[in-house]
Structures are given as structure tokens and as C-alpha cells.
């Protein structure tokens, strides 16, 4: 369906300028904040909207995606929406038998275990690009509703997505995946490039339909040594981000526990490096090239601590972020489902007063 083009106000918002490393232009405006997993089980209105519909099914229903994406924006007054979807949606659209099991996470009926499994991966072609239409439609509807606030699009990075494909379900240490990289580097490269292609196309579809920034989630990259990351992962994460490089939107790159390889995370093609709570903001600023923006990094545990402790940390993070080329406040990882939503609403108001 036809909707007016995305508002230029969204693409020129303080949050987007900060992600692009142009924080100086908006230094007098209140800090910008959004939360990873701001939509989801912490919100009663989310649980109600999702009742009776499976996770991956919901992601292909544009009106529902729009509603769920907007819920935390309305409630908490965060400065951006994060597109309601999942890193496994591209697999589903490519025809892979995947589901998201309540209480577990992504589960594949046929995990990747052999060369034959990799040979059998479906092509990334016009049929796949046509299957992305519900995503484009959901982004058009959502950006229209968000009006002047930006929508952040995202996809999973090849290592994190491939780890679910190889392990078949969530895994603590990703042993099979890390073994495949070094035992069969050519097979690994084919799998990682395939994920880069389906995820990159998914990312591009979101930006073309109106998203104003993107985040590449390599949640589990922190389990890798920097040398392994550089040899077997970075080129494919770069390939995924290359799908939107010409579209001139900020590119956030995030992984949990990646403080030991921040430069490599940046070199994969990010304008903005997402930090978990263990990496001090001043250390990141010192390590990364001038002009790089940072995002983060309040410890999610503080959502369950005293308000005094939470606000003190938030104030410190805002203060430290002011010395970066651009800084957007976020948590160090996603909002836990047990979070009291009022805690997030109050936290956003406090951050906006800084
Ligand atoms: O039961 C439910 O309601 C489903 C829970 C849920 C939700 C709300 C899943 C299953 N995915 C999502 C949405 C989702 N997933 C978003 C939406 C936007 C937002 O942030 O508000 C995003 C960005 C993701 C991305 C995602 N999915 C990541 C990367 C981010 C991260 O948290 O590290 C990962 C690793 C996944 C896999 C996944 N999907 C769902 C779960 C529970 C998991 C993690 C499983 C595991 O622990 O390995």
C-alpha cells in the first residue's frame, strides 16, 4: 500500500544525529534513549496483543507489528521505536523450518550438521525478496504512525544467527558453531555468507521502507577470541552491513561481552558501537576512532535495584556519554521480561531531565 515517504524529521532527529556521530549539533537537547527489547513480555499490553498468535506468525502481521512496536513508545516516551520482529524471521521467510518456543527461544527442526545441509540452503533470490513484503508493509505502517520519531531496523549477525542454525536451539557456549569455523572453514564461510545475504536483504528492506537507523545484533560474538572473530566472523558481519551502506543511515553494532574487541566490532562497518554494562564508556571512547558514536550501557540488573542506585548510574552514563562524538542511552542488554514497566517509564523521564 502507498503511504507518504518517511518524515525527514525522523531522519534528522537528535537520536539519529547522535548515532551518526553528529552529537555536537544537538548538544543542548535532552539525552536520547531507547531500550533493547523495549517491546515484549514486560508489557501487559504486549501479552494481550500476542495472545493466541505464535511469535513468528505475529512478525508477519503488519498491523500487529505496528501496534507492538508503538506500545513502548507510547508508554515510556522513548526516543525511537525498535521494529518488532526477530533475528530468526529471515530464516522463516527463506523457508527454513524454525519456530520460537515459549520459554526456550529459537528452535530448528533440522539443524545444520553436514555439507549436504549447507548445499540445501534455499537461494537468496527474487522469491526471497518478494517474501519480505510483509516486513516492508509493517515498516511503512509503523514509520507513518511514529511520525517524527525514528524507527530502528535490525537484523541478526551471521555468527549469532548461524549459532542457532548449527546448535538447533539456544546454547550457552556455541561449541559446535565455533568448532565448525576452524574444522571446516570453507563450509562455515558458505553458511555465514548465506546468513549475511538473507539478513542483509531483510535489513535493506526495512531501511528502504522507512527505518532511520539500523542495529546489527551479534549478541553472542563475545564468546569468540578477537583473532577468531577477525578471521571467521568480521567479513560476514561486514557483508550484512554492506547491504545498507549506500542508504546513509547510522549503523549500530552490538554484542554482549565484546569489550575485548571493540575495534574489530567497529571495523565491521559500524558508525556506532553498542556497549554492554561491563565496558566503561570512557574506555570505549578512548579505544574507538574519533567520530565513532557509542550506545549503552546501563546494567539491566539496576532495573531491580533501588531508584537511587539506578538514577545515579544513569546520570553518570549521560555525563560520560557527553564526551563522545554521539551517545544514545540504552541498557547493556535487553529488558528482562520480569521488569516493572513503571521503572522504565520513570527512568526515561529522569534521563530526559539530565
Ligand atoms: O515469548 C515471547 O513473547 C517472544 C519473546 C521474543 C521477543 C519479544 C523473542 C524470542 N524475540 C522477540 C523480539 C525481538 N527479538 C526483538 C524486538 C524488538 C525489541 O528489542 O523490542 C529483537 C531486536 C530481537 C532480536 C533477537 N532475537 C536477538 C538479539 C538481541 C538479544 O537479545 O541479544 C536474539 C539473540 C534473538 C533470539 C531470540 N528470540 C527470542 C528469544 C527468547 C531469543 C533468545 C534466546 C536465547 O537466549 O538464545
TrEMBL record:
PROSITE patterns assigned: UROD_1, UROD_2
Record InterPro entries: UROD/MetE-like_sf, Uroporphyrinogen_deCO2ase_HemE, Uroporphyrinogen_deCOase
UniProt KW Lyase keyword: yes
Sorted UniProt keywords: Decarboxylase, Lyase, Porphyrin biosynthesis
Gene3D superfamilies for the chain: 3.20.20.210
UniProt domain Uroporphyrinogen decarboxylase (URO-D): residue ranges: 32-41, 152-168
Pfam families given in the database record: URO-D (PF01208)
Reactions that this protein is recorded to catalyse: uroporphyrinogen III + 4 H(+) = coproporphyrinogen III + 4 CO2
Biological or metabolic pathway of the protein: Porphyrin-containing compound metabolism; protoporphyrin-IX biosynthesis; coproporphyrinogen-III from 5-aminolevulinate: step 4/4
EC number: 4.1.1.37
One MF annotation (Gene Ontology) recorded for this entry: uroporphyrinogen decarboxylase activity
Source superkingdom: Bacteria
Similarity field: Belongs to the uroporphyrinogen decarboxylase family.
Protein name: Uroporphyrinogen decarboxylase
Gene name for this UniProt entry: hemE
Amino acid at each position: 500500500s502507498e503511504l507518504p515517504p518517511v518524515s525527514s524529521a525522523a531522519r534528522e532527529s537528535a537520536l539519529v544525529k547522535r548515532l551518526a556521530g553528529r552529537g555536537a549539533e544537538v548538544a543542548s537537547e535532552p539525552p536520547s534513549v531507547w531500550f533493547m527489547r523495549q517491546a515484549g513480555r514486560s508489557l501487559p499490553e504486549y501479552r494481550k496483543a500476542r495472545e493466541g498468535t505464535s511469535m513468528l506468525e505475529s512478525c508477519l502481521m503488519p498491523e500487529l507489528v505496528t501496534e507492538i512496536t508503538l506500545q513502548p513508545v507510547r508508554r515510556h516516551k522513548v526516543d525511537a521505536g525498535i521494529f518488532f520482529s526477530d533475528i530468526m524471521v529471515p530464516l522463516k521467510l527463506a523457508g527454513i523450518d524454525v519456530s520460537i518456543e515459549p520459554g526456550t527461544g529459537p528452535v530448528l527442526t533440522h539443524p545444520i550438521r553436514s555439507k549436504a545441509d549447507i548445499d540445501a540452503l534455499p537461494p537468496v533470490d527474487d522469491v526471497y525478496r518478494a517474501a519480505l513484503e510483509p516486513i516492508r508493509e509493517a515498516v511503512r505502517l509503523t514509520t507513518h504512525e511514529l511520525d517524527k520519531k525514528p524507527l530502528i531496523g535490525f537484523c541478526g549477525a551471521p555468527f549469532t544467527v548461524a549459532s542457532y542454525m548449527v546448535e538447533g536451539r539456544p546454547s550457552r557456549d556455541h561449541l559446535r558453531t565455533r568448532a565448525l569455523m576452524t574444522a571446516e572453514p570453507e563450509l562455515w564461510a558458505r553458511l555465514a555468507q548465506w546468513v549475511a545475504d538473507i539478513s542483509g536483504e531483510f535489513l535493506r528492506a526495512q531501511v528502504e521502507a522507512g527505518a532511520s537507523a539500523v542495529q546489527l545484533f551479534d549478541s553472542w560474538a563475545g564468546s569468540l577470541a578477537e583473532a577468531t572473530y577477525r578471521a571467521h566472523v568480521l567479513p560476514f558481519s561486514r557483508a550484512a552491513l554492506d547491504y545498507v551502506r549506500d542508504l546513509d543511515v547510522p549503523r549500530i553494532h552490538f554484542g554482549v561481552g565484546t569489550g575485548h574487541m571493540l575495534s574489530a566490532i567497529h571495523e565491521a562497518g559500524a558508525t556506532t558501537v553498542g556497549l554492554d554494562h561491563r565496558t566503561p564508556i570512557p574506555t570505549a571512547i578512548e579505544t574507538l576512532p574519533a567520530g565513532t558514536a557509542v550506545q549503552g550501557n546501563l546494567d539491566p540488573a539496576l532495573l531491580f535495584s533501588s531508584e537511587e542506585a539506578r538514577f545515579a548510574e544513569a546520570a553518570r552514563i549521560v555525563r560520560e556519554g557527553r564526551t563522545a562524538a554521539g551517545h544514545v542511552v540504552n541498557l547493556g542488554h535487553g529488558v528482562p521480561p520480569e521488569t516493572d514497566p513503571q521503572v522504565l517509564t520513570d527512568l526515561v523521564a529522569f534521563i530526559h531531565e539530565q
